[in-house]
Design brief:
Keywords: Lyase, Metal-binding, Zinc
Binding site for Zn(2+): 5, 7, 61, 64
GO molecular function: carbonate dehydratase activity; zinc ion binding
Oligomer: single chain
Helix content: 40-55%
Number of helices: 8
Strand order of the largest sheet: 2-1-3-4-5
EC number: 4.2.1.1
Order of helices and strands: EHEHEHHHHHEEH
Organism: Candolleomyces eurysporus
Length: 229
């Protein structure tokens, strides 16, 4: 499963060359997770309990417009500003060095009484760093507040074999300009079990499973009925 961002122009299936039917996605502005967001929380729970997913990837992307809007701010109060408010608040308190330097450079000063309000360049190191931290924040929220938090915290005092789920959560960022995917190394899984390699092996397995069993004729095309003369 991929928890991604609404404005990422490429789908996870195209980014990872995954076969049709092998992945599910849930997107929102800024790839956020909150247990108060019924839609995302239900999608995560459904993927785990009903579909049996083993890997959940939080997929951010450099140049994210949702993160950019949180940085530039907006005086208009609407559903968008309400949705990205957690990202706005996170931006104000994030202490990563690149983000602090970036934030300070945009503050009001002589000649710029309002500071810098323009959308940051996609290549700006501070902007890129904050995109990464926002992904890490979502992974942390899944660790602390999702169905996995309840299961893993309850099983932490027990043997790993008693863990009700074997689901691993990863934080990735996609670079639309280069096609590269960055693993932020914040993965977590069941207590007492090692984190497996990032799930490209799982995607390959899914490809074989779906292509051979469920979609053997999908790419063979359809025979159109002949038109009557």
């Amino acid at each position: 499963m991929f928890l991604g961002c609404t404005d990422n122009r490429l789908t996870p299936a195209s980014i990872f060359q995954a076969p049709i039917g092998s992945i599910i996605t849930q997107n929102n502005i800024g790839n956020q997770y909150s247990k108060r967001d019924t839609s995302t929380d239900a999608a995560i729970t459904y993927a785990i309990e009903d579909l049996g997913v083993q890997h959940i990837i939080v997929l951010g992307h450099y140049g994210c417009n949702g993160v950019a809007r949180a940085i530039t701010g907006s005086k208009e109060r609407n559903s968008i500003s309400k949705w990205i408010e957690p990202v706005v608040n996170f931006y104000k308190r994030e202490r990563r060095r690149e983000v602090v330097k970036f934030r300070d450079s945009r503050k009001p000063r002589r000649g710029l009484p309002n500071g810098i309000t323009a959308t940051p360049d996609t290549s700006d190191p501070g902007f890129r760093a904050f995109v990464e931290e926002n992904v890490k924040k979502t992974v942390k929220a899944l660790r602390e507040d999702s169905i996995l938090a309840r299961a893993y915290q309850g099983s932490a005092k027990m043997a790993a074999k008693n863990t009700p789920y074997e689901v691993y959560v990863h934080g990735f960022v996609f670079d639309e300009s280069t096609g590269q995917v960055v693993d932020l190394k914040v993965s977590f899984g069941p207590p007492g079990k090692p984190i497996p390699p990032v799930p490209f092996t799982a995607i390959a397995t899914a490809k074989n499973f779906h292509m051979q069993k469920h979609l053997p004729n999908f790419f063979k095309g359809k025979t159109l009925p002949k038109k009557s003369s």
